[in-house]
């Protein structure tokens, strides 16, 4: 078992540093082009998949892999409450994202095969990385941890999740049945920024990283910011070009700042 755990640790470390590296690659690439799904969906990126099906299949590995690790593991850390709570946070997020989000989706552009496959592989590796680390290595000790940043991180995670879910709810209700066009979203965090769904998502994984304090969770937070931060800026520019009456004071991603 010790040998397997050792190999496991090397894979987790390898994945963590790769995720950081990929985050910076994605950040650079997204300065030159947009991720080809949603409003930027275009030809040349493979056959198109119905969006609800695409979201369900691409996100589900991040829910199933942790569950699989959970039921098969004999690793000691998962007996401890702080580890259980962190794993529950991850599972709640990906239950929402792979079951509820596609189920509630009313419309959306089809997803091309290549971004779909990239998202699928990402969710597979990241599900293994985050759950593997929490179950096997993140050490908060038995009982409740006295680490304040753990609790602050958990609060930030749920605040981010609430902002993300509310923002996606607003977008979903902009279109009447059969409509495919875009409208200006209003209300909640939309009064301050163009993309509170991405802002909420970044807060979520930053909180998760603060609570975890592990290289695995920090690498995920960095990757998320590098991936959807530029998308928020692209959406913001796109809105400003499309709508003359787009609110002038609204920022892209961070209220009053960016
Ligand atoms: P978008 O904001 O681009 O689109 C979300 C949905 O709302 C789509 O169905 C879109 O339709 C629709 N929509 C968006 N803007 C408008 C508008 N102005 N008027 C009418 N409908 C609109 O988000 P993403 O699809 O990129 O992301 C969806 C969720 O997944 C978010 O919560 C995001 O945080 C999360 N995500 C997380 C990532 C991570 O790295 N952790 C990576 C990517 C996404 P259409 O398809 O027609 O554009």
Q: Quick recap of the structure?
A:
Its main location: endoplasmic reticulum. With 258 residues, the chain is mostly helical. It is built from 8 helices and 2 strands.
Topology (elements, then pairings):
Elements: H1 2-32, E1 48-49, H2 51-59, H3 61-72, H4 81-104, E2 111-112, H5 113-136, H6 148-172, H7 196-212, H8 215-242
Helix pairs in contact: 1-5, 1-8, 2-4, 2-5, 3-4, 3-5, 4-5, 4-6, 6-7, 7-8
The structure holds NADPH dihydro-nicotinamide-adenine-dinucleotide phosphate (NDP).
Question: Low-confidence segments, ≥5 residues, pLDDT <50?
Answer: none
Strand order of the largest sheet: 1-2
Question: What order do the SSEs take from the amino end to the carboxyl end, as H and E?
Answer: HEHHHEHHHH
Instruction: Enumerate the distinct ligands.
Output: NADPH dihydro-nicotinamide-adenine-dinucleotide phosphate
- Shape field: globular
Count of domains = 1
Mean pLDDT: 94
State the end-to-end distance: 48 Å
- Largest sheet descriptor: 2 strands, antiparallel
- Beta strands, count: 2
Strand content: under 5%
- Helix run count: 8
For this structure, the quaternary state is single chain
Structural class given helices, strands, pairing? Answer: mainly alpha
Radius of gyration, in angstroms, nearest whole number: 19 Å
How helix-rich are the residues, as a percent range?
55-70%
């Amino acid at each position: 078992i010790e040998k397997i755990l050792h190999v496991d640790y090397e894979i987790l470390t390898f994945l963590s540093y790769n995720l950081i590296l990929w985050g910076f690659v994605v950040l650079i690439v997204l300065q030159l082009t947009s991720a080809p799904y949603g409003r930027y969906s275009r030809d040349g990126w493979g056959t198109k998949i119905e969006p609800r099906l695409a979201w369900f299949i691409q996100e589900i590995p991040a829910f199933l892999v942790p569950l699989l690790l959970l039921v098969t593991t004999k690793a000691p850390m998962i007996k401890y409450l702080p580890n259980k709570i962190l794993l529950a946070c991850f599972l709640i997020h990906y239950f929402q994202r792979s079951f509820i989000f596609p189920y509630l989706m009313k419309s959306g552009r089809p997803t091309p095969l290549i971004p779909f496959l990239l998202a699928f592989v990402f969710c597979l590796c990241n599900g293994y990385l985050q759950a593997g680390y929490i179950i096997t290595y993140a050490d908060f000790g038995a009982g409740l941890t006295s680490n304040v940043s753990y609790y602050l991180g958990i609060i930030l995670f749920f605040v981010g999740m609430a902002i993300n879910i509310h923002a996606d709810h607003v977008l979903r209700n902009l279109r009447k049945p059969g409509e495919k066009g875009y409208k200006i979203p209003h209300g909640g965090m939309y009064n301050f920024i163009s993309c509170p769904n991405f802002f909420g998502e970044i807060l979520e994984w930053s909180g998760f990283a603060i609570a975890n304090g592990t290289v695995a969770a920090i690498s995920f937070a960095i990757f998320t910011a590098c991936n959807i931060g530029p998308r928020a800026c692209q959406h913001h520019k796109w809105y400003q070009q499309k709508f003359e009456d787009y609110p002038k004071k609204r920022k892209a991603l961070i209220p009053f700042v960016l």
